[in-house]
Design goal:
heterotrimer; A mainly alpha (about 325); B alpha/beta (about 325); C mainly alpha (about 300); B: 8-stranded mixed beta sheet; 12 strands; globular; C: mainly alpha; 11 helices; elongated
């Protein structure tokens, strides 16, 4: 009833946001110095050839016409061709998106769930050694840059201990020379563990710290004291009264941090050479493959927007005070 | 027969920096079975801390230093006759909470969990304490609704959808839901408008008559306390200054503070008088005055009052006062 | 107004210093912060003492020979080089000190910029809550939250090449003010219904005056708190960008150090080169956060009201 209307409205808002993002990016790139075609333009080309190339990319038309063409292309999912792969950008992206989702989704879910659970337990046992030590440790890892943490993991677990592979998503040998489906899945999971831990850790620590702070404040509320005065079991007070309310600001914070998680995902994929959209963004940028880089950016922005909408809906579900109009 | 006896209770709050707030400083009173004892006093006199002390739900910095609280219904924790609530282990105390003694909170606005339905919060307590099944709890919920005049359908709503008066009634229903022996009502109507206050007070009296429970009614409003109580205790600055049955209090009040309180209540009947307040402000409980704590504001203070604290003693049957001028 | 702010600040300071000192987290944060501040200032002195061969970006110790273990001029810590040398033979400690200085500059400038913009927009949005001004600002905030900025920074450098530090700082401010704005807006919304605002309006004060003379001083402590939280994030973002290779190559920030280390394939061979900058980033960000947290106990309006 109200929820479907809300969902619908949020999706519309998401589409508008995406549209605005696309527009902003378009104009941003047009006003920046630097020639996007410099990689395929050879200085030795004659002016006529250069003009012809420009024309084929539509860069000699007026800005508004370019914008119109741009939007039309977006809507028809024509993102141009990758300079490097010489294939449509959409085709390249289609292969990369599932890999990114495979990494990003569990990382976000785990960070939120584990963070809330642990934060809840820590806040309940206030002023204990456990609380102080876990808070400091959590803070330390929260502030550790993604790439630093990831590289340390690689160094210890992959390089020194040899427990995990140092990079990639699959073992090419294994897949080329025939393997059963379950062997393939285990192989992917084996490669997934270190990048997953890397991506989850910072968000998890952040969630945990935030949940702890939120719980500490919630525990001071009247209804928690009232619940305790009623002699309800500790676990019930902690979970149904305090934690359920303390979760709410944490979920809100999750929305705000999605953008940072995406950035972290890009870094993680790059370090581990995990073939997702983030990694592609990195390599495309280094290789000056401008259309592909732009395409990757859009996908990442799209994932961000979708994630924000999903979490927003989850929040509306958790907090009955939200009105749906 | 006394259902509850409080003897020489002392409770302090520890403050940041080592200071102590002597919120409850040696008070004794009792509650008769089936009757209401009212506790009246200014804001900050320590009366609200009494509820938390009896139920032992004080915040971390509350420390009970002395005294005992005798509660008649030891059967709840498997002991016969009287038990001392202050020496009871925590797991037994949990059993007492709500089965033996329940509470109606001040500021019901925030006493309900905002993310759960009101009805669920009420049935929850019944299912945990009395081990009722879902159906039994729901049936009882309907009966409770009837008693506090809430339409049963409203129990599906969330707290923010309830009006102030309805929330208060829900809190009252919650306090009744496990058939407690004693209810502590701490400023139950303060946050409401006057008309609703009056209505709820009437409803509470009705319920008490019907169910025959004992009650402690705490308020700063003397007229309200006197309307619902059988026996009144007057508190000032953490100490009890006078205690008497209802009629005796108004006809023969002895302590200057009590008299001051009565004089500041407007009366509809009787001769018209000018209202007078009590000059000055309540003392800081972290460093109360020497001697009788009321002496800086007392119209009949003598030299002795500044030096020695008056003893709390029985002047007539059932009438106790702590004042040198009596 | 400035005089009011100063006297308000002094009062807050006197009132809250004991609480701040007592906060364990806050004291740890302050200690770490002063340590890094000292290192930052010490940097140029160190180079001055040890000579130009110790200069962070360009200096090289020419007396070194190739280290057989690393196949370069990178040597582990020694008396001459307290943190060892990098693959070129430059002193790592001097680079570390320089990085500390840069971290402060980057972090604080971004945080101040974001706090200023965030506060101004938060005040406007909160004061005119419900009107088009508010909606416009809030919609902008919502959209900006959905733009992942590391990928954006990367794509920008795809077009214009490596980002100069000043450009980076400006873009970061542009993407960091939203958080502050939201918080300030919430606070302003609750403050604008206070009686003293009404009385100011009745006596004919202009909107501008009300905002900056009456509401702003109450909101500034919150801005400081938000500011302290942004510093850490900004430092980490710069280091991430530099590490990936898109940062300012003329500035040897900690992230840049690690980028060079990786580019020279020395990550696992020369831990003395790789670990200190990473730990430096982590510790300095932690310090700022700890200070911010203890500020929170002092400044949080909800916690204050409960007194």
């Amino acid at each position: 009833m109200g929820m479907t209307k809300y969902l619908f409205r949020r999706v519309i808002e998401g589409v508008i946001t995406l549209f605005i993002v696309i527009t902003i990016t378009f104009f941003l790139f047009r006003i920046m110095p630097g020639d996007p075609l410099s990689t395929i333009m050879d200085p030795k080309m004659t002016p006529e050839v250069k003009a012809a190339i420009r024309h084929s990319y539509g860069l000699d038309k007026s800005i508004l016409v370019q914008y119109g063409l741009y939007i039309k292309n977006m809507l028809t999912l024509n993102l141009g061709d990758s300079f490097y792969y010489s294939r449509p950008v959409t085709e390249v992206l289609a292969r990369r998106i599932p890999n990114t989702l495979l990494l990003f989704t569990p990382a976000t879910v785990l960070a939120a769930v584990l963070g809330i659970m642990l934060g809840r337990i820590i806040a309940w046992r206030r002023n204990s050694k456990l609380e102080y030590s876990l808070t400091l440790v959590g803070l330390f890892f929260y502030m550790m840059p993604f790439f630093f943490f990831g590289l340390i993991l690689i160094y210890v677990f992959a390089f020194k201990l040899g427990l995990f592979p140092t990079s990639g998503m699959i073992d090419y040998e294994l897949w080329t020379f025939g393997a059963t489906a379950s062997e393939k899945i285990i192989d992917i999971l084996h490669h997934l563990i270190l990048p997953l831990i890397t991506l989850t850790m910072a968000s998890f620590c952040g969630m945990m710290l935030l949940m702890r702070t939120s719980m500490v404040e919630t525990l001071r509320e009247d209804y928690v004291e009232a619940a305790r005065a009623r002699g309800l079991p500790d676990k019930v007070v902690r979970n149904r009264y305090a934690a359920r309310n303390a979760e709410l600001p944490v979920v809100t914070a999750l929305i705000l941090s999605i953008s940072l998680s995406i950035g972290g995902g890009v870094i993680t994929e790059t370090i581990f050479s995990w073939p997702g959209v983030g990694w592609e963004l990195f390599t495309a940028t280094v290789g000056r493959d401008y259309p592909l880089a732009q395409g990757c950016f859009f996908i990442l922005a799209l994932i961000t927007i979708v994630a924000v909408i999903v979490i927003d809906i989850a929040y509306a579900y958790l907090d009955p005070r939200i009105s749906y109009d | 027969m006394n259902v509850l006896e409080v003897n020489n209770l002392v409770m302090h709050y520890k403050l940041f920096g080592g200071k102590r707030v002597k919120a409850v400083d040696g008070i004794s009173f009792s509650v008769e079975e089936g009757k209401t004892t009212g506790i009246v006093g200014e804001s900050g006199c320590g009366k609200s801390s009494i509820a938390g002390t009896i139920l032992r739900t004080l915040p971390d910095n509350g420390e009970i230093k002395e005294g005992n609280i005798n509660f008649r219904y030891g059967e709840i924790v498997g002991k016969n006759g009287r038990i001392d609530l202050l020496t009871l282990p925590e797991k037994d105390m949990k059993k007492i909470r709500w089965k033996g003694i329940s509470m109606i909170f001040q500021g019901a606005m925030n006493s309900l969990n905002p993310v759960h339905r009101v009805g669920d919060q009420l049935t929850e307590i019944m299912r945990y304490k009395d081990k009722l099944s879902k159906e039994e709890a729901e049936k009882k919920l309907d009966k409770l609704c009837e008693m506090v005049h809430i339409k049963p359908g409203r129990m599906e709503d969330y707290p923010h959808q309830f009006s102030g008066g309805m929330k208060q009634r829900a809190i009252i229903a919650m306090a009744l839901s496990t058939d407690p022996r004693l209810i502590i009502a701490d400023e139950p109507t303060t946050a409401l408008d006057l008309i609703t206050q009056d209505r709820i007070l009437d409803e509470m009296k009705e319920i008490q008559k019907k169910l025959g429970m004992s009650m402690i009614f705490i308020s700063h409003d003397l007229s309200m306390v006197s309307e619902i109580s059988d026996h009144v205790v007057v508190m000032y600055a953490g100490k009890i200054v006078e205690s008497c049955n209802k009629r005796g209090l108004f006809k023969e009040s002895l302590h200057p503070y009590t008299q001051g309180l009565i004089k500041s209540c407007p009366r509809i009947r009787g001769e018209k008088r000018k209202l007078s307040g009590i000059p000055g402000e309540p003392p800081n409980l972290a460093s109360p005055p020497e001697g009788c704590r009321f002496h800086p504001r007392c119209p009949v203070a003598m030299g002795k009052c500044r030096e020695k604290e008056p003893k709390y003693r029985e002047v007539e049957k059932g009438h106790l006062v702590a004042c040198w001028a009596v | 107004m400035i005089k009011d702010l100063i006297s308000e600040f002094k009062e807050l300071w006197k009132e809250n210093w004991p609480r701040f000192k007592a906060s364990k987290f806050g004291s740890i944060g302050v200690i770490i912060l002063f340590m890094f501040l000292f290192l930052a200032i010490f940097g140029p002195i160190y180079v001055g003492i040890m000579g130009p061969s110790y200069s962070p970006v360009s200096g090289m110790d020419l007396s070194l020979e190739i280290n057989p273990e690393t196949n370069s001029y990178a040597w582990p810590p020694s008396w001459d080089h307290p943190m060892g040398t990098d693959s070129k033979g430059s002193d790592v400690f001097s680079q570390f000190l320089n990085g500390s200085y840069l971290a402060f500059v980057i972090g604080i400038s971004i945080a101040i910029g974001a706090a200023i913009f965030g506060t101004i927009f938060g005040l406007i949005s909160g004061y005119w809550g419900g009107t088009w001004k508010d909606s416009l600002i809030m919609r902008t905030v919502d959209v900006l939250f959905c733009i992942p900025f590391l990928p954006l920074l990367i794509v920008i450098s795809a077009v214009i090449g490596a980002l100069k530090l000043s450009v980076f700082i400006v873009i970061m401010i542009f993407f960091s003010w939203m958080g502050v704005c939201r918080v300030i807006r919430a606070q302003t919304l609750s403050l604008r219904t206070r009686p003293y605002v009404d009385s100011a309006r009745v006596t004919g004060a202009s909107n501008f005056r009300i905002i900056f003379r009456h509401i702003a001083p109450n909101v500034i402590p919150l801005s400081f708190f938000e500011l302290s939280m942004i510093v850490g994030g900004a430092i980490i973002m710069e280091s991430s960008l530099s590490f990936l290779g898109f940062g300012d190559p003329t500035q040897m920030s900690w992230g840049m150090m690690m980028n060079f280390c990786r580019a020279q394939s020395h990550m696992f061979k020369a831990l003395w080169w790789f670990l200190p900058p990473g730990l430096g980033i982590t510790l300095i960000a932690t310090a700022f956060y700890l200070i911010g947290r203890s500020l929170d106990e002092i400044v949080n309006p909800r916690l204050r009201e409960r007194k």
